[in-house]
Fold this protein.
Amino acid sequence: MPTKAIKVLLILSLFWVSDTFAANRIVNLVVGYKTVDFTGKSVQAIAVNNQIPAPTLHFKEGDNVTINVYNHLDKGTAIHWHGLLVPWQMDGVEGVTQEAIPPGGVFHYQFTLKQSGTYWYHAHAGLQEQQGLYGGIIIDPLQPPAYHYTKDYVIVLSDWSNTAPEQIYANLKKEGDYYSPRFPLQPSLMKFIHDYHRDMPEEREKLISDYKMMQQMRMSIYDISDVAYDAFLLNGQSVRHPWAAPVKVGDVVRLRFINAGAGTMFHVKIPGSSMQVVDVQGHDVKPYIINDFTIAPAETIDFLVKIQKNSPYIIYAESADTLGAAYGALLTKPEQIVNYQQIAPFPIPEPVSMGGMNMNMSSMDMSGMRHDMPSHQMNMAENNQITTGTKYQNLQSLTQTNNPNKPVQIIKIALSGYMDRYIWMINGLPEYKAKPILIEPGKRYRIIFTNNTMMHHPMHLHGHFFILRNGHGAHDPFLHTIDVPPGATVVADFDADASGQWFFHCHFLYHMMAGMSRVFQYTTISKDAVTPIDASLIYHPMAHPMGLYLSNFLDIGEDPFDNVQQLTFKGLYGDDYNKLELFTNDSELNKNTVENADLDIFYWHLISQFWAIKGGANYVYRPANTPYWQPGIGIEGLMPYFIDTDARVYYYNGSTKLDLELSRDSQITNNFFIRAGIRSIFATKTIPEDEIGSGLNQLQYTIRPYYRFMPGLNIFTEFEHDQDYGTLSTILHNEGEPDSENTLTFGFSVFF
Ligand SMILES: [Cu+2]
């Protein structure tokens, strides 16, 4: 609730911009809720000084800056100054550099600006960045740049969901591809056939190998985004009210692009113009011309556009998953009509390919071993490591950035993920399971990234700049965020010149939350002159502790011809690695009589990227003469070729029973699938009263076409053929029951 004092603060904060004579700059930022409507629906967002994006902070190199952040939320917050080299206690990461600013509290961020260029700031507390807490920072250099421009605009790109980010995260934890039904681009059979017919023979070979690799690796080749957003924003404006700014013919416009999206890579173009790149991530580069570019979350790129014709210049930023776009325009006349519809979308992206890349699945070791420390130390006299496969190949710093002959120490960073439970990892461990990576001051460290996933990961190191090793030696570019493409190995150095502890993470917000993060801690931190606010931050730095999650999967089918109802339910409750599992598989009500009903009450434990073991008690209600309990153990997971596997073994009354179920879902179109499954039941000893026979008891074959109606809801029809064998078949005969059964059910399944 804005009090009078806050209104005064807001007004004061408008005046600081004109305050150019003083080197001491004071900025007041008030973080509070704001109702927004980007899609026709009013929802709560988080704003700074009631603005989304937050106000652009404009400083000059050398300024002594004080930023007072007032928290008017009902939860803690913290703000990080992305790319700025500040004392570590001013870096604004909850749990690593400070305790969160409590509701009603204030934090005074103080630092002197040692750099110039385009940067940005955003929340580093919870998922607040997703809700609007981001804004640009411009720092004018002491010496004017080598290039000239007449106008200067900041373009902040971002993504918006009407769903609260905590709910998005909870949904991803139910199933990593929860939002998949909403993506236009999917690795379906229809898409394959379409591409195959379109392609030339050599492209066909690649297409087939891509699909084959996807099947073996159990990863999607169109895994571009995790979250299906409701809107994309350019300077806080959706396509319903595009942003526009005035220019005139003859202008040279500096556009400072900032991708403040929480989970979106953008493809950007300005049709009818060429763009001269002059600065990347705050550092001037050897200028080069581009017609379009891709910008990952947290990256910035500045370029110059010459205004040559008296018509609108459209800025078109499409989400890489092709779900939507943000756009805006530079207008050469006020009230100019802009025909946004004339813009052709970017070509459909090619499947993500990892062919020929160095895949290292053995890095998915979750045994709890420490992988964080540099695996070995190595001095490299010459610098011949070239970064491969990135978009930064031609990026060269304008000025010399480093002495490339300085010896380095290696830190290996392997990026991986476990999609079923949405865990993202570095060296096989999520942040909450890992210890800080220790850094000795004065040394140069070489990070060797290997991306063992199908997604891009824009990796950001706080408090330092990477020197990306892209083959330009002393002119290798400085970057605060490196977009590591799928399957790629990327090499980057940094000089350990800022004692403290610094967050290092993927800038996809939900990847960071789900574990793709680390703390880099200097060995000298406890000797730092400035005492930390709370010593526990040094002993247990933790930006994102482990959480507890619920997932419920319910599947209900009805066979109207035979009056049979079937129910399958699986509930998983707990942290990422340890859960309580409640599972009833194919409980059946046949003509109002319960024929099958049993419930696993199991402890579930994740052991590797695709497998969990489980064990506990199973309660059998039917078929059984009298209901009974039995102990059980099992393993569940995903085999290559996406074969879902669930094997369980029970022991009851001298008989050991094996229940093995295999199924595979084949994607025919974007949301139409066919599941084929087989389940077999064996036992070692006959117990007639409980309908258990020795040897093979039963085989069940299922074919289930289903349609993904929306995230969390499928509708299906299923044909099931059950065949009984051997002793069980005889037992059922004696009871006057048939030894085979066909059911055709119609139903739905939900995740919640
Ligand atoms: Cu990531």
